Amino acid sequence: MSGEFRQYLFPHDHPRLAGVRGLDAYAYREHARTPGTFTGGLVEGWTPLYLEEFRGVTSDGTLRKGLYPLTPAEPGEEAPVAEMVAAATDLLAALDDEGRKRICHDVDAPEWQTWANPEFMQFDTGLRLEFQPPAVQELALGLVRASLSPEGSELVHAMMVINGFLGEVVDLPTVLNEFSYNLALYGTPDLRAPWGWQLFGHHAAVNCLVVEGRMQLSPVFLGAEPDEVDDGPRAGLRDVFADRIDLGTRLMAALTPEQRQAATVYAEMVDPAMPPGRVHPGDERHLAGAFQDNRVIPPEGIRVPDLPEDAQRLVLQIAETFVRLLPPGPRAARLREVAQHLDETWFSWIGGWQPGDVFYYRVQSPVLIAELDHHCGVFLDYDTPQPFHVHTVLRTPNGNDYGRAWVRQWQAGRT
User: Fold this and answer.
1) pLDDT tens digits for 109-148?
2) CA–CA separation, 46 and 39 (whole Å)
3) Half-sphere exposure of 27 (CA within 13 A, CB side)
4) Residues 6+ apart with CB under 8 A from 244
5) Which of 10, 70, 207, 402 could form a disulfide with 409 if both were Cys (CB 3.0 to 4.6 A apart)?
6) Are 154 and 161 in contact (CB under 8 A)?
7) Cα–Cα dist 197/127, whole Å
8) Bridge partner residues of 217 (DSSP)
9) Is the separation of the CB atoms in 326 and 215 below 8 Å?
């Protein structure tokens, strides 16, 4: 139902909003670090994780080797590297010396791991786009468009547009706007050597690396509160995660009662059976979110090979919706990689599965983790998850987030 979120608006003078109204991104960052506040606790918990040396998400603490050999892209599966190089070159040319210094990092710099999805800027990596002129903002979007599929770049930009819309609705335009995002470049744009870019901010974080014509796109975080724009010049944007939600409920419906029970790890979104910490104050049920680059995530639920063939196809369709940001060639390569490990893939669920229910699900294999979760309110007033607040996370476990496994192989081959 369009506009359902409006029944949860805070009063304009509520402390949740009034206390930060008028703060710019840097002042709000300092406010968010305040000990004892909700955001202060997140900063305190996440900062030590960023300092860890990158290894990669694993299922048992052991990094599985040999999953990501660095070979040139197969014919027809090449990333649009030439277009990306041109877009990055145009962006760099539009910046002054200070801007170029801020935006550029080494290809294996730890700053890759500073991305986060909350509205507060914990790490000021790269350029803050809201403080750049419109020409630079458009060139930044041009790099996103040159790199991703048309539907992928539209989805990423939709997260940014909805963020700006939320800022208008709650009158916090200096905290939530279309360009309250950071953009960084890693490595030197090149047709063969590894390089990439990173865009991150509230409800959108994308990490993209290319090398030898191949593309890795992860970690990716996309979310929305609300999942629509119901007013103004961009009204009509809505249900941006409908495909991922629909496929999840269709998959649960395709299971037998016994299989559904096996897949359901917890029946309630906040379940008494959950161990302490299972619902994180920021990530809620997500396990592979920001600063979780080295997390151990054991598989849960039910093995996909034990499901009926139609249910297995739905699992692959869910994976396809998560990697749809990739252009057609790299997407085909990624889906083949996922399909090759279907016999080691697990599916897990938390919550209800009827249409309209709120839930969490995870598809997990040695080469992919895809999560979807319904969340509680942040800038809207509700303390139980709602269908119009959605978070999604995509990871490449066992060491190839940020294309890091490929970068290390490239570097080893050059020494």
Assistant:
1) 999 999 999 999 999 999 999 999 999 999 999 999 999 9
2) 11
3) 8
4) 318, 321, 322, 372, 392
5) 70
6) no
7) 12
8) 208
9) yes
| pLDDT at res. 1 | 57
Amino acid residing at 48? P
> What does the block give as tokens for 41?
């606790």
Q: Which two tokens stand for residue 385?
A: 């998850």
Instruction: Specify the 3-state DSSP secondary structure of 57.
Output: coil
Q: What's the pTM value of the predicted model, to 2 decimals?
A: 0.97
For residue 68, what are its two tokens?
């990501």
> Looking at this protein, which amino acid is placed at residue 60?
D
| Interatomic CA distance for residues 248 and 219, integer angstroms | 21
In tens, the pLDDT along 23-68 reads 999 999 999 888 877 677 787 888 888 888 999 999 999 999 999 9
End-to-end CA distance of the chain: 58
Closest to 225 (Cα-Cα) out of 10, 14, 21, 391:
391
What percent of the chain is helix, strand and coil (3-state, nearest 5)? 40, 20, 45
In tens, the pLDDT along 287-299 reads 999 999 999 999 9
